[in-house]
Design brief:
- The chain is an alpha/beta fold and 172 residues long.
- It is built from five helices and five strands; from the N terminus they run βαβαβαβαβα.
- α1 crosses α2 and α3 runs parallel beside α4.
- The longest helix is centred in the middle third of the chain and has 22 residues.
- The two termini are 23 Å apart.
Amino acid sequence: MVEDVANRGLVVGVDGSAAALAALRWSAAKARLLHTRVLVIHAWLPSSSLRAPYAPARERLTPEQERARAEATLEGNVAELLRADPDVDVTMLLHEGPAAPVLLNHAREALLLALGRKPRTDVTQPALGAVARACMRLAACPVVTVPEPPPDAAEAELPWVRDGVAAGLERA
């Protein structure tokens, strides 16, 4: 039996960081090779659940403001991808909830889950963040962590962006 991979797609978690954008760009390149789609997810939690009850009220955002901020993060990452690659089959999903469970739930049937990985600056700290560690441990599909590019790297230098790399993989 031949499995139809095009219906399963790739899932990418984004948080507005350069590492998340790198994972999104990498996933778009892989989706093109696999003739599938990319599901871009931004999971967010209301900050009121993270604040002490005695925290100053004037610094709190309303739930509507928090949702708008989360939506802007998601749309900003996708807009950045589409500026460079307008032909990507991408679907956006904004989901209120803890990041790891949300990503794991949506990646159950995915071909893979891609997450950004920030540079490791302190060797006493884990190489991956809490969300990536949970996803690596519990995902039903492969999990790929894509490193954040160096700040001075030109876009053309990134291996998953260069035209020749995708063309070479397609021929292989």
